[in-house]
Amino acid sequence: MSDPRPIGVFDSGVGGLTVAAALKRRLPRERLLYLGDTARLPYGTKSAATVRRYTQVNLEFLEQRGVKAVVVACNTASALALDGLDCRAAALPVWGVIAPGAVRAAAATRNGRVGVIATESTISSDAYGIALRRIAPGLGIWSQPCPLLVPLIEEGWLDDPVTAEVARRYLDPLLTHDIDTLVLGCTHYPLLAPLISRIAGERVALVDSADAASDQVATELAHRGLLAAAADPSAGGDHYCVTDASRRFERIAGDFLGREITLELVDIGNSAAD
Ligand code: DGL
Q1: What would the pLDDT profile of 70-112 be if each residue is shown by its tens digit?
Q2: What is the pLDDT of residue 196?
C-alpha cells in the first residue's frame, strides 16, 4: 500500500520549516504542503482559545487541499490546541511535536533532570511537563519561557554575542538544577543548537522536537500504509503557503531550509476569528 498525497505541515510562520526539513531528511520521497500562518503570528504569546481557533482553521485548509495527514509543527499549537481539534474526517491523522519530544527526552536523561525551553504559552500550558510525567512520573522538570529567542533567530543572529548573552540568561536557572537533558520546545530553537550546546556544555543532551516528530510521523505513516511509494514527478514538489505575503518569510526561509522557496498567498478566511 502507498499514498502519493502530500503531508500537511503547519506552523504560525517560518519556524515550522525546521520540522519540514526534518521530515524531508527522514522521508525524502514524501511531498509536503506547508502552511505558515504569517498573518496571525506569533502564537507563542496568545491565549489557548485563540490558538485553538487558528489551529482548527489551518487544519481545515490543509484537509481541503487533500493532504493525507497533518503535522502540527508549531509547539505552541501542539501544546494548546491538539486535544481539542475536530478532525472532521476521522481518517485524517493529526500529529504534534510535544509527545515525540517528551518521549525522546525521557529516554535521553540519565539523572532524571530535564529542562524545557519554549514560548510563554507553551510553558504556561505545562504541555511538556504533563507529557514527560506521563512517561516517567519521577522526573524532575524545570521550564523556562524564552520570548526573546524567536525574534533574534528570525533576525538571523544565530551565532551572535547578543543572542549568546540572552540565551545564557535563560539557561542559567535551568543549569543550576543540574539538568542533563534540554528540550528545544519551539520550532525555531534547533537553529540555535550549536550556541545552546556551547552554553549548556557537552553533558547536556539537546532534544530537537522537530527531529523526534519526524521519526514518529515515519513510523505512523508506515503503520497506516500511507507512505509514498516513490517521488512522483507528475505530482509536483513541495508547496508552501502563507496567510500574509511577507518578504521576511522568504528571506528567513533560506536560513531554515538552506534554499529559496516560492510562496503561495492564501486567504484561509479566518479573519473573523481574529
Ligand atoms: N512556532 C512557535 C512555536 O513553536 C514559535 C513562534 C510563535 O510564537 O508563533 O511555539
Answers
A1: 999 999 999 999 876 665 545 689 999 999 999 999 999 999 9
A2: 98
pTM across the whole model: 0.93
Q: How many CB atoms lie within 10 A of CB 120?
A: 15
Gap from CA of 219 to ligand 1 centroid (Å): 25
* pLDDT bracket for residue 274 (50, 70, 90): very low
Tell me what percent of the chain is helix, strand and coil, each rounded to the nearest 5.
45, 15, 40
Peptide bond into 190 cis (omega under 30): no
Phi/psi of residue 230, nearest 5 degrees:
-160, 160
Q: For ligand 1, which residues put their CB under 6 angstroms from it?
A: 11-13, 15, 41-44, 74-76, 119, 122, 150, 186-188
Separation CA 92–CA 117 (nearest Å): 30
Residue 170 CA to residue 149 CA, distance in Å, equals 10
Residue 260 near residue 254 (C-beta atoms within 8 A):
yes
The closest residue, in CA terms, to atom 7 on ligand 1 is 42
What number of CA atoms fall less than 13 Å from residue 73's CA on the CB side?
31
- As a whole number of angstroms, the distance between CA 68 and CA 117 comes to 31
7 SS3 class: strand
Reply yes or no on whether 186 is catalytic: yes
The H or E element spanning position 185 is strand 181-185
Active site annotation includes 87? no
Give the single-character DSSP code of 256.
Answer: H
Q: What is the pLDDT of residues 198-252, one digit of tens each?
A: 999 999 999 999 999 999 999 999 999 999 987 666 667 899 999 997 777 888 8
- Please tell me the distance from the alpha carbon of residue 268 to that of residue 57, in angstroms, as a whole number: 7
Most informative mutation of 14, 76, 122 for ligand 1 (most atoms within 8 A of CB): 76
